[in-house]
Specification:
This protein is mainly alpha-helical. The chain contains 11 helices and 2 strands.
């Protein structure tokens, strides 16, 4: 079947190059902006999978599952770099992880029941939301302290659930929440990188399990497309520490505005594909 052999056929090397380049870029983003590479990985994989003629009805599911699986590798590399700089609040990670994992696993089950068209529309809305937030530099003011275990689990459930529907490590939600709770921005980014691992782990497991009963291309493990995962992971683990180092020296606010424009372009391209 062409959908199964295309990655290793005529456009095989081009596809591998795109996977590797995507991983390098996503890794830098994960460490630099604390938003995770999923915001770029999901739309780019959607475009690549469409060009490869993978099953149209499951392109978004494969992109979301593969994105979360790749973030497992990126988050480990990124959190180690942030931990080395003392920028991870591990007490927060412990308190929020149960809710994060429960919400993400449950969200992956919900996503498996939804159509690619709905998921694509939801993702576009989320991209625009994040882009506007970055362009207008909307930041919550530190107004409270971190809540207790129960409330943290509830917050984690919401962050995990949304993250599973858009294939990200949760940084676009966890960083503002932590800043609102009086965590310094660099510690919020570092802690968000650590929170990304349980999100990615639970999400990847959820997408694998929920995709096992679906007819998918060769080299798929559930809703995780292994060739894409291998290419992205190979470079993202190398570039994530670089992004973490740059986060402590570059003008993050200016870079976020540039990134926001990129999100708008990608979101608009995805939106047009719905019609």
């Amino acid at each position: 079947m062409m959908a199964e052999t295309k990655p290793y056929g005529g456009m095989g090397m081009t596809v591998w190059f795109m996977y590797v380049a995507l991983g390098a870029f996503a890794g830098v983003l994960a460490g630099l902006l604390g938003v995770g590479g999923g915001l770029v990985i999901v739309p780019v994989l959607t475009f690549i999978f469409t060009a490869q003629h993978l099953p149209e009805g499951h392109i978004l599911h494969l992109a979301l599952g593969t994105s979360l699986a790749s973030i497992m590798f990126t988050s480990i590399s990124s959190l180690r770099a942030h931990h080395g700089r003392g920028a991870v609040e591990w007490s927060v990670v412990r308190r929020i992880s149960f809710g994060i994992m429960a919400g993400t696993f449950g969200g992956s089950w919900v996503a498996a029941q939804l159509s690619t068209r709905f998921l694509k529309g939801f993702f576009v809305v989320f991209l625009y939301y994040v882009a506007i937030q970055m362009l207008l530099n909307i930041k919550p003011k530190p107004q409270r302290q971190l809540p207790g275990w129960a409330a943290m689990s509830g917050v984690g459930g919401v962050i995990g659930g949304v993250s599973s529907l858009v294939g990200i490590g949760g940084g676009t939600m966890s960083v503002p929440f932590l800043v609102w709770c009086n965590l310094a921005i660099h510690r919020a980014i570092g802690t968000s990188a650590a929170i990304g691992f349980p999100i990615a782990l639970a999400g990847a497991i959820g997408y694998v399990v929920n995709g096992l009963s679906v007819s998918l291309p060769q080299y798929s493990l559930g809703f995780v497309y292994l060739p894409a995962l291998a290419g992205i992971a190979a470079t993202s683990v190398v570039t994530a520490p670089l992004g973490a180092r740059l986060a402590h020296s570059l003008p993050i606010d200016r870079l976020k505005k540039i990134f926001a424009l990129l999100l708008i372009v990608m979101g608009s391209k995805m939106l047009l594909s719905l019609f």
